[in-house]
Design a protein that fits this description.
By secondary structure, this protein is an alpha/beta fold. It folds into two domains: 13-94, no CATH class; 125-259 and 319-406, Alpha/Beta hydrolase fold, catalytic domain (Rossmann fold). Helix content is 45%, strand content 11%. It has helices at 13-41, 57-80, 82-88, 96-115, 135-144, 170-178, 193-208, 224-239, 243-246, 261-275, 280-286, 291-295, 345-349, 357-360, 393-406; strands spanning 125-128, 131-132, 148-153, 181-186, 216-222, 247-253, 329-336, 378-382. Strands 2-1-4-3-5-6-7-8 form an eight-stranded mixed β-sheet, with helices on both faces. Helix 10 (261-275) packs antiparallel against helix 11 (280-286). The protein is globular. It starts with 12 loop residues before the first helix and ends with a helix.
């Protein structure tokens, strides 16, 4: 029987979440403007400190009214959005486009959504083709695959459905050609990498405790997904989880092992805005970005890499060196938009547009941070960007070759 639609006076979780997020945003922006106003009227000086108190008198009353009206309008949106709720309540509510939008919102604001218990937050779970998996069906697939299980872990601001790009899906192809059982991780990429890593470790422990004993695990991770996977391995070892002994290999696709230039650049701009009293309020706009995004500055994997730290402060690499898991075959694919060989300067400055080649290959001038992935387990795809790694035929050929050789 078809599911009964929600009652007419009840908003869908999507709309309620979006409304809540909009109210938070308007209130936050009014606070930024108020802070700037206070700085100007107090003549703080070009390099002086901005005002820390709320504006007083008539001006302060105006800002209080803005926040009050925002809250009232937020409450009133329920009535205005009822018609939209009816539209989103039908089958189109779970389209790939909606999933992509939710993934992007979680990537940018996921920690805020989690902290406020916003309905838009994405819970971590395993899925197949965008749907919750069935353990019995998975076990049958693993038995048929002689114990070979492939789990794919997506990157920042993405979801599990986006492994399917331009009619290609590495997971689906490897399952068809090499006989793997496949599963996809879906998670809120706006949370700290260590939070997702710890949860991923727990979920794998639950999952593999109910799978056949001969299960052999392979992780295929894109971008941030590689960092979440490495973090999960650490927490699995700490907890003594059995699955870490069943982990056979990890393949990293464009993973920023040592951080991404974009987040480092945003952090620098944030610092510059903080210097000037008149621009300081606007630095708060940049500080909307999530914990997951700021972890990408250097590739933080552990909780103590960010605990007791101001994540928006301009500072050096504070990471604890974390080697790759022992006894696990690790492979790394980097991409570069440059088509020439010989590791040109652009590889180290631009790479695939988001991650440099050296970061993707785990190379670092500090020996303690270098991942030491064997040269035979590295490959650079040229004239490719970060997203091409998800569907390029040459990337797939390399994946297939490595996994075939590994048996």
């Amino acid at each position: 029987m078809p599911e009964k639609p929600d009652k007419p006076n009840k908003l869908s979780s999507d709309l309620r979440g979006a409304k809540s997020l909009a109210v938070d945003a308007v209130t936050g922006v009014s606070g930024i403007v108020e802070s700037l106003h206070q700085t100007i009227v107090s003549f703080a000086g070009l390099l002086g400190k901005s005002g820390t108190q709320r504006t007083q008198g008539l001006t302060g009353g105006v800002y209080k009214s803005i926040n009050l009206i925002t809250e009232l309008v937020g409450s009133g949106l329920d009535v205005l959005l009822l018609q939209l709720d009816k539209v989103l309540a039908d089958k189109t509510a779970s389209t790939r486009k909606r999933e992509a939008v939710l993934a992007a919102v979680n990537g940018v604001l996921g920690d805020h959504l989690h902290a406020t218990n916003n309905p838009l937050q994405i819970p971590m779970q395993f899925r197949i083709d965008g749907k919750a998996f069935n353990q019995q069906t998975l076990n049958q697939a693993i038995e048929k695959a002689d114990g070979k299980l492939l789990i794919l872990v997506h990157g920042s601001c993405m979801n599990d459905l986006q492994w399917h790009r331009q009619d290609r899906d590495h997971g689906e192809a490897l399952a068809d050609e090499l006989g793997y059982a496949r599963l996809y991780l879906h998670y809120n990429s706006g949370l700290h990498i260590s939070e997702n890593g710890s949860k991923f470790a727990d979920l794998l422990d639950e999952l593999l405790s109910d799978t056949p004993e001969n299960t052999k695990l392979t992780l295929l991770a894109h971008s941030m997904g590689g960092l979440v996977s490495r973090s999960a391995c650490h927490y699995a070892e700490d907890s003594g989880y059995r699955w870490i002994t069943q982990l056979d290999s990890i393949i990293f696709l464009g993973t920023p092992h040592h951080g991404a230039p974009l987040e480092k650049g945003v952090n620098l701009i944030d610092h510059i805005l903080e210097i000037n009293a008149y621009s300081k309020p606007f630095s708060r706009l940049l500080q909307i970005r999530s914990s997951g995004m700021t972890d990408l500055r250097y590739g933080n994997l552990l909780a103590h890499d960010w605990e007791q730290q101001n994540r928006f402060k301009l500072q050096g690499d504070q990471r604890t060196p974390l080697p790759l898991p022992k006894g696990v075959a690790c492979y790394a694919i980097a991409a570069t938009t440059d088509e020439t060989g010989g590791k040109p300067v652009s590889d180290h400055l631009i790479g695939d547009g988001l991650v440099t080649v050296s970061s993707a290959l785990g190379e670092h001038k500090n020996p303690a941070l270098k991942l030491n992935i064997p040269q035979s387990n590295q490959w650079i795809g040229r004239k490719m960007d970060h997203w091409d790694l998800l569907n390029h035929s040459e990337v797939y050929a390399k994946l297939k070759g490595w996994l075939t050789a590994a048996g």
